[in-house]
């Protein structure tokens, strides 16, 4: 009798282990794989939102450096010096106060220096003189990033009729931006291509798509994406324990519950386990939508980002969406925007962009898209819209801007449909 009971007990234990194993293979393991993919995508969305902010910062800094170099009155003085109409002392005396004035209205600069024929004409702030020596090698505006102290050095040629007559070397600190967007569980860094290659040695590459990398060494995960404006990579890293702990917790509950209660309360186990997973899946979906919104929205104007517009176009190009009715694309440019920035400052320029965004959004339908395409350029994506209707939409927005009394100067737009 005891032998039979022992066999029954073994059979029950074996059945419970078999049920637990089958449940793990058919339920827990596929769920784990799908949830890991969703968490990895959320990690990527979170990082891409920061990438967009960093790229905007670099582009804005390059535009500021270009504005500093293109000041006409200073450039003319350099031409006069080159032609022998001014002495070096007269040139420096003329440029330095104006250079200081232009420097002070530009945000985030830590230093700047103007070089002509190897001679310092003007300087402001803190200058890293080691970066000045190789200035002659740059024929167009070029950023270089010190990945250790997160300082951008921008080499901006000063051109007169396509001839380089001097250089501005501008230094921009981006550490406040990088540390400002850090999350408790995520670290953000800038790498060169060589640094990234060394970092990826020995790590499992989970995803490699057009230079974007998702990698892991079992304890940490890294996401790397090339920056559009500079030959560098943005790298986000986080602990696997942090991002995968919700999955491990949920699966631990399932693994404990199945063998213990499988024959007695299987219905209750299923209810509790799948309710927990459902809540986790809902939470992951909410996080996914939130991170996707960050990557799809322009932080300054609260319009759609260029990244989001490219995603929309990709859906049409790849055949996921088809064109059933006319679509109007309107490219808009702000007239004299550089002059507004130079005259009234970049804060006023930012407010002008926000005001234009509000006017455009008020003039389109909910299914249309207002996109900040870059700098002072906007784009309208108008569904089921003819050329004439697009003209009316622009007319409404322009009328709104003309009747606005918010600024002491007019806001004028140029556009093409």
Proportion of residues in extended strands: 15-25%
Mean pLDDT across residues: 83
Oligomeric state of the chains present here: single chain
- Shape descriptor reads flat
Q: Can you write the helix and strand succession as a string?
A: HHHEEEEEHEHEEEEHHEHEHHEEHE
> What strand order characterises the main sheet?
2-1-5-4-3
Please summarize the sheet with the most strands: 5 strands, antiparallel
Radius of gyration: 29 Å
SSE-based structural type: alpha+beta
Query: What are the segments in which pLDDT stays under 50 over at least 5 consecutive residues?
Result: none
Walk me through the structure.
This protein has 417 residues and is α+β, with helices and mostly antiparallel strands. Helices cover 52% and strands 24% of the residues. It contains eleven helices and 15 strands. It has a five-stranded antiparallel sheet. It has a five-stranded antiparallel sheet with strand order 6-10-9-8-7. A hairpin with a 6-residue loop joins strand 9 (220-226) and strand 10 (233-239). Helix 6 (240-261) packs antiparallel against helix 7 and helix 9 (337-344) crosses helix 10 (346-363). It starts with a helix and ends with a strand.
Keywords:
417 residues; alpha+beta; 5-stranded antiparallel sheet
Write the layout of secondary structure elements.
Elements: H1 2-69, H2 72-82, H3 88-104, E1 109-116, E2 119-125, E3 142-146, E4 151-160, E5 163-173, H4 175-180, E6 186-191, H5 193-200, E7 204-209, E8 212-216, E9 220-226, E10 233-239, H6 240-261, H7 266-296, E11 304-305, H8 306-317, E12 327-334, H9 337-344, H10 346-363, E13 369-374, E14 377-383, H11 387-402, E15 413-416
Parallel strand pairs: 11-13
Antiparallel strand pairs: 1-2, 1-5, 3-4, 4-5, 6-10, 7-8, 8-9, 9-10, 12-14, 12-15, 13-14
Helix pairs in contact: 1-6, 1-7, 2-3, 6-7, 9-10, 10-11
């Amino acid at each position: 009798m005891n032998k039979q009971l022992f066999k029954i007990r073994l059979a029950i234990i074996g059945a419970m282990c078999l049920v637990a194993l089958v449940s793990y293979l058919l339920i827990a393991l596929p769920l784990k794989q799908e949830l890991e993919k969703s968490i990895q995508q959320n990690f990527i969305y979170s990082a891409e939102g920061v990438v967009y902010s960093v790229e905007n910062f670099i582009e804005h800094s390059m535009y500021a450096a270009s504005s500093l170099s293109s000041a006409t009155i200073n450039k003319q003085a350099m031409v006069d010096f080159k032609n022998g109409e001014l002495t070096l002392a007269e040139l420096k005396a003329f440029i330095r106060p104006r250079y200081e004035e232009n420097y002070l209205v530009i945000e985030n600069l830590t230093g700047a220096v103007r070089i002509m024929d190897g001679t310092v004409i003007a300087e402001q702030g803190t200058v890293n003189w080691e970066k000045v020596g190789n200035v002659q090698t740059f024929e167009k505006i070029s950023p270089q990033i010190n990945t250790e102290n997160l300082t951008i050095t921008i080499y901006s040629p000063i051109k007169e009729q396509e001839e380089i007559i001097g250089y501005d070397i501008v230094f921009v600190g981006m550490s406040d931006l990088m540390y400002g967007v850090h999350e408790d569980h995520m670290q953000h860094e800038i790498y060169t291509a060589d640094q990234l290659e060394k970092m990826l040695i020995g790590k499992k590459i989970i995803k490699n798509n057009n230079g974007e990398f998702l990698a892991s060494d079992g304890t940490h995960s890294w996401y790397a994406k090339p920056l559009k404006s500079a030959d560098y990579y943005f790298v986000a890293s986080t602990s696997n324990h942090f991002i995968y702990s919700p999955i491990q917790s949920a699966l631990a509950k399932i693994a404990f519950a199945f063998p213990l209660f499988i024959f007695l309360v299987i219905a209750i186990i299923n209810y509790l386990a799948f309710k927990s997973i459902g809540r986790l899946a809902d939470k992951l979906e909410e996080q996914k939508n939130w991170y996707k919104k960050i990557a799809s929205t322009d932080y300054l104007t609260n319009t759609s980002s260029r990244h989001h517009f490219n995603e929309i176009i990709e859906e049409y190009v790849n055949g996921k969406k088809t064109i059933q009715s006319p679509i109007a694309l309107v490219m808009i440019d702000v007239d004299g925007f550089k002059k507004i920035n130079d005259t009234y400052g970049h804060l006023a320029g930012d407010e002008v962009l926000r005001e234009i965004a509000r006017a455009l959004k008020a003039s389109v339908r909910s299914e249309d898209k207002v996109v900040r395409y870059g700098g002072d350029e906007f784009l309208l994506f108008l569904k089921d819209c003819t050329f004439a209707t697009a003209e009316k939409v622009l007319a409404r927005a322009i009328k709104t801007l003309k009747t606005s009394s918010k600024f002491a100067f007019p806001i004028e737009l140029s556009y093409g449909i």
